[in-house]
Amino acid sequence: MLRPRGPEADPGRGAGGPAFGNHLHGLACELVLSRGLRDTAAALDAVAGRARGPEPDPDLGRLASEALARPPGPLRIGVCAEGPPGFPVEAERQQAVGEAAGLLAAAGHALVAIDPERLGRFTAQATSVFDHVIAVNAARNLGPLGPAALARVEPLTRAVVARGLAIGGVALQAALAAGVAVAHGMWRLFDEVDVLLTPMLATAPPPLGAFPMDGEDVDENWRRMNAFAPYAMLANVAGVPALSIPRGLDRAGLPLAVQLIGAMATDARLLAVGRQLDDRLT
């Protein structure tokens, strides 16, 4: 997964080490924080083929760095400027998606409108999967430390651990099955389009403290996360690559960003499409 919000590649693309808990059942796959597409591509090429499990390393067909040298396409670009139901996206961020779509259309790609309600069904499922996997993983790592150690962490972390300890094997398996359904739904979407273009964030980055850890409402914390980045969790749960690209500045002078999501093993394609949107790369 390629995101400078991670950035991440397909599960199995980068090594996480044998002690990384199977990458949270595929929800996390680390790469680098990079200043530009060239660095991201170089890092992706450097780690390719060295993951050694637990997921297979997908064959990208060519070096990611080579993808920046030639334009892709023409491709079908699915465009969804709005957030899923219940998670509105600010107008200037929707406009950034529209402007990015215009640039891609001018580059020869075909635009396909994607209903946010369709993506909303996937994001709702993805949230449930994320909740169960994160909670169980927190319980596995922190639960054995005992009450005295847990008393030293934030109340929200304790609440997540308590939730994880209460989740049984059947419920966890059901959540993982829902993750499979999300991945399948995204595969069906990518039968219709080659790349999905969405907002990266719904609002400007909030000030420190906007995600307080002193409460115990786990569901409200996940809701805040989805309200801030409504389509970020979708790529993680579906196990597909995604790339965040800055497109201008908002009213406060902070970067506006759009997100490109692709099917599994299309990391190089996303980099090539991102190259067409990144006005900093010459």
Describe this structure in words.
- Belongs to the amidase family.
- GO terms for molecular function: catalytic activity.
- There is one protein chain.
- This protein has helices at 21-25, 37-47, 64-67, 91-106, 116-142, 147-150, 155-166, 169-189, 218-228, 232-238, 267-277; strands at residues 76-79, 110-113, 195-199, 242-249, 255-262.
- It is an alpha/beta fold and 282 residues long.
- The chain has a single domain, classed as Amidase signature (AS) domain (Amidase signature (AS) enzymes), CATH 3.90.1300.10.
- A 5-stranded mixed beta sheet has the order 2-1-3-5-4, covered by helices on one side.
- Helix 5 (116-142) packs across helix 7.
- It is globular.
- 41% of the residues are buried.
Q: What tags apply to this protein structure?
A:
Amidase signature (AS) enzymes; 5 strands; globular; five-stranded mixed sheet; 46% helix; 282 residues; alpha/beta; 11 helices
Number of beta strands: 5
Kindly report the CATH topology: Amidase signature (AS) enzymes
The total domain count is: 1
CATH superfamily: Amidase signature (AS) domain
Radius of gyration: 19 Å
Distance between the termini: 23 Å
CATH architecture: Alpha-Beta Complex
Along the chain, the helix and strand elements come as HHHEHEHHHHEHHEEH
Mean pLDDT: 86
Structural class: alpha/beta
pLDDT < 50 runs, ≥5 residues:
1-9
Shape: globular
Instruction: Please work out how many helical segments DSSP would assign.
Output: 11
**Neighbour order of strands in the largest sheet:** 2-1-3-5-4
